[in-house]
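Reopening this one. Same input as before:
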Amino acid sequence: MLSTKRDRKQGGERFPIPTEGEIEGKLIVLESIAIVCVEDTVAHSNPDAISKLRENIERVVRERCHPLKLAPDDEVAAQQYALEFVDAGVEEVYRRRSGRKPGRFET
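Same output, byte for byte:
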């Protein structure tokens, strides 16, 4: 995305602001990875697997935010966003498995 090396590139690649297509493409990749990871997690019959996944993601986000010295509110917002992202992946996996959309995933 943002890079000082873009100045030497040709055409649209040199612009520092990513295009809507670049952003959408990256989101599709992230969503696809999340769904596959959740599918693999759900495939194991361990009932605590999703809870463990959520805990691990929250921990990793906290660990990655801490060195950046983000404001506490921003760190909490990043954790909440990550968990919402995972929950959306869980809902999508269950929707695909059952053919219907369940209510909000609760841990």
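So the earlier flakiness isn't reproducible anymore. For the record, The chain has a mean pLDDT of 78.
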